[in-house]
Amino acid sequence: MIVLKTKEEIELLRESNQLVGKTLGELSKYIRPGISTLQLDKIAEEFIRSNDAVPGFLNYNGFPNTLCISLNDKVVHGIPSGREILRDGDVVSVDCGTVKNGFYGDSAYTFTVGEVSDEVMKLLVTTKTSLYKGIEKALEGYRVGDIGNTIQQYCEARGYTVVRELVGHGVGRKMHEDPQVPNYGKRGQGPMLREGMVIAIEPMINMGKRNVYQENDGWTVRTRDGKPSAHFEHTVAIGKNKADILSTFDYIDERFNYN
Ligand code: MG
Ligand code: MG
């Protein structure tokens, strides 16, 4: 069942999602070789709580931390650890969720650590661009399949593959609501988009093959071939003429502003 949001509820969702954007911005100041993923997690938790919100992922289905941090061949849902240290040349996807005023925020960004190869940078730029291409279809009258098809065509035309096992989703009083929003699909198929719908669009794009597996920790998803993966996510409200992006990358340090 798709829960439509009122204008007032969309403003509350914006508040929660803007806080996610500010948290990603705060974290971006600390992303460099030598910091552990658990240190980043603590910075985010403190920042969210000091802004009168609570971490959205902590204890969600038993997830143990504030952030999902996924290095290199980890696709999503990596668990922060004091033993996991960022190193020069890594790429690190940081997925952050908040709950504020009863509504969820959900957004993710993939950061570079030090200097990364041109090949990896191209993967990041393509994935980020595909997110915005998908958002262009987040309009009343299109269907969910139009978003997925756009992302898939854009990434596959550049030699990358789309992860199928994990998808975007509706966002509201629950973090994962209907509809599911795959990053692949057929034009003109799936649920019709209409004003009042709020969805997270989150391409997960692999440099190698699309296949992934889940580690024994019950969370971490990795590429089967060990090649890197990128992940960018915005929460958006469906618009009549333009999608309304409720989350933001505006606070992220300009070091990471790749286009
Ligand atoms: Mg997310
Ligand atoms: Mg999400």
Give structural notes:
The protein contains four helices and 15 strands. The chain is α+β, with helices and mostly antiparallel strands. Helix 1 crosses helix 2. The chain has a single domain, classed as Creatine Amidinohydrolase (Alpha-Beta Complex), CATH 3.90.230.10. The mean pLDDT is 98.
End-to-end Cα distance, whole Å, is 36 Å
Each distinct ligand:
magnesium ion
Tell me the CATH architecture.
Alpha-Beta Complex
CATH class designation: Alpha Beta
Radius of gyration: 17 Å
Oligomer: single chain
The run of helices and strands is HHEEEEEHHEEEEEEEEEE
Question: What value does the average pLDDT take?
Answer: 98
What's the number of domains? Answer: 1
CATH topology: Creatine Amidinohydrolase
* Structural class label: alpha+beta
Q: Please describe the biggest sheet, giving its number of strands, its sense, and whether it closes into a barrel.
A: 5 strands, antiparallel
Percent in strands? 15-25%
Strand numbers in spatial order across the main sheet? 8-7-9-14-15
Number of strands: 15
Helix run count: 4
Shape: globular
Low-pLDDT sequence parts: none
Question: Superfamily at the CATH H level?
Answer: Creatinase/methionine aminopeptidase superfamily
Query: Which percent range fits the helix content?
Result: 25-40%
List the helices and strands and how they pair.
Layout: H1 7-28, H2 37-49, E1 54-55, E2 67-71, E3 74-76, E4 91-100, E5 103-112, H3 118-135, H4 144-156, E6 161-162, E7 168-170, E8 177-181, E9 198-201, E10 204-206, E11 212-214, E12 221-223, E13 229-231, E14 234-237, E15 244-245
Antiparallel strand pairs: 1-4, 2-4, 3-12, 4-5, 6-10, 7-8, 7-9, 9-14, 10-13, 11-12, 14-15
Helix pairs in contact: 1-2, 3-4
